[in-house]
Amino acid sequence: MIDSLGRGPCRDGDTDTAEKAKPSATASVAPDAKSSTTTPKPSSAVPSPDAAQTAALIRALTAIDPGLTVKEDRAVDRSRNVCSDVKGGKDAATVQNNAKARFEGGTVPSLTDDQTANIVTAVKSSFCD
Questions:
Q1: How many CB atoms lie within 10 A of CB 100?
Q2: Residue 116 CB: number of other CB atoms within 10 A?
Q3: pLDDT confidence of 46, banded at 50, 70, 90?
Q4: Is the pLDDT of residue 27 over 60?
Q5: CA 109, 115, 119 angle in degrees (round to 5)?
Q6: What is the pLDDT of residues 67-89, one digit of tens each?
Q7: What one-character-per-residue DSSP string does the chain give?
Q8: Closest CA to 125 of 59, 42, 43
Q9: Are 49 and 84 in contact (CB under 8 A)?
């Protein structure tokens, strides 16, 4: 029997027509990053503090100025950026200037050089060694 497209019969074992009609099982599908069940680790070599390190960091930053830790997640993110500068081999003055720029503003309108140096020390001593 000939189908409406003028093709001949499809017999058992005649996989040519049947295979063309089926989608390929090996078709490449772009992975959906959101469907992952595990949280990917940061691609950088900058460590993330564990719970105890985070607590120590938050205590140290709060002692410098309570405004630094109003948003603890933000304080940790900024601290990781300071650690990135340290691990990246930037000189001490650059690390300190970048830390000041990251932490100053909002709830902490200005930081002294001593406070900024203490922030860098807190980051290094809590998780970024």
A1: 20
A2: 22
A3: confident
A4: no
A5: 105
A6: 999 999 999 999 999 999 999 99
A7: ---TTS-----TT-HHHHHHHSPPTT------GGG-SSPPPPSSS-----HHHHHHHHHHHHHH-GGGGSSHHHHHHHHHHHHHHHHTT--HHHHHHHHHHHH-BTTB----HHHHHHHHHHHHHHT--
A8: 59
A9: no
Asked if 74 and 108 touch (Cβ cutoff 8 Å), the reply is no
52 pLDDT higher than 50:
yes
Who contacts 47 (Cβ-Cβ below 8 Å, separation ≥6)? 80, 83, 127, 128
d(CA 65, CA 48) in angstroms, rounded, equals 22
Confidence check: pLDDT of 92 > 50:
yes
pLDDT in tens, 57-68: 999 999 999 999
Q: Which residue has the tokens 């200037």?
A: 97
Mean pLDDT over 23-52 rounds to 57
